[in-house]
Amino acid sequence: MISFHPMEKCLSVSELTYYIKEKLENTFRGVFLQGEISNFKLQTSGHLYFTLKDENAQISCVMFRGEASRLRSLPKEGDKVTVRGEISVYAPQGKYQLVVRELNFAGVGDLLLKFQKLKEKLQGLGWFDKARKKELPKFPKTIGVVTSPTGAVIRDIIHVLERRFGNFHLILNPVKVQGEGAAQEIARAINEFNQYKLADVLIVGRGGGSFEDLFCFSEEIVAKAIFESQIPIISAVGHETDYSIADFVADVRAPTPSAAAEIALGEKAHVLDFLNKTRHTLQRFLHLKINTLHQRLDDFLNLLERAILGEMRGKKILLDSFKKRLFALNPLLIIGHHKQHLQRITTQIDQGIVKITQYHKRNLVGLVNHLKSLDPKNVLKKGYSILFEEKSGSVITSAQDLNVGTNVIARLSDGSAKLLVEEKL
Amino acid sequence: MKDERTFEKAFKRLEEILEKMNDGKISLDESLKLYEEADQLIINCSKRLSEAEKKIQVLTKERDGKIALDDKEEPILEDFS
After folding, report:
1. For chains A and B, what is the number of CB pairs under 8 angstroms?
2. In this complex, do A142 and B52 lie within 8 Å of one another by their Cβ atoms?
3. What is the ipTM of this complex?
4. For chain A, percent helix, then strand, then coil, each to nearest 5?
5. What tens digit of pLDDT does each residue of A83-117 get?
């Protein structure tokens, strides 16, 4: 915070301005002001600029687009208005102005005053006391509605009821909800519902509008009808930010007509929800139970299967070993073995014979050769001769066998001759 | 407020059943029995809740803005659409 000691320090313009800004803005935050419009200007930005004045003074005002767009009609020169807002200092121009948040045309000021007075009066009478509020029925059979038959309110209410709860009984008491005589109609409708006991709970309301539009719900006659109603009443007047006397007196204030419908249904919709949820939960439990049992059954089945399979596998192994042994004993196989053996022996014999034959052949050839070398003819060819006895033809191998005067035959290699033994030498 | 008592009784029983079934210790037979009982309770409650048939009506009015009455001095209701 900038400290301000005028005699001690020389300030810059900015310093002084910001000091003023802070002081002013903090002091004049919630200003409620009445005056006459002049220099009215609507900028293309949507902001409104005007001056409020009375006989002796004037103040610059700005109403920004957001707030200005909520005005039902733009103010004109000379209009008497009341505004709510706060003081703001615009440093670049050294100006202060009122930033208007809410603007009401003259007359509204009177209405506001009336509203305040009635509110205080009824509060004083205890009409707003929580203790006096009636409890809403939990299971209403018939929902009564006091509103315009053509507005969005009744549509919204029916829409919600249809969505939340199929079977409902709604009775509309159609009334004017703004202007001359509206308050009387609203009050009478509430009384009629009570007189003929037409509903278990009432919704009284209308859609959004200006403070004047909504004002019929702030008339004492309506407040009285609500207060005296034996049937519990839900108010739904304007938007959530709007307040009417009806809202204060009603047993429950709903921010919107749709909300009012939800509230009016009481526990019916909740009970239905609860029942549906319960049913689902129970079904889930049951399924869980059944599934668990199923699973256990499956487990048993698996065990059983495994056991049987194990047994079978054992048997199979045994069977296989039998098969193998049996196969080994197959006579054909044995015969085959013997056959093979026989074959081997045959082959061996054959090979033996061949070998022996060949051996003898070789021997024979040797013998023949030897024999050939021993053939006497061959000896004769070398110049020898053989002597035979002429008569017996036997071979003479000794000289003693030769007798002088006898003939012998001499064989030479290429012929024979008769020889006479002349003498022994 | 007969309805409220009926409902409250039913809710209490339903909650008991929920608890028992949630416990999981009961037999399948018992579960089925409890489920049937709960189902019946739910059906009955739903019926009671939905007993009123859907009606959207509007009060007819006289010229002076008062509601119109029939011969028996009862308000005349018409369907609202």
Report:
1. 107
2. yes
3. 0.75
4. 50, 20, 30
5. 999 999 988 988 999 999 999 887 766 788 889 99
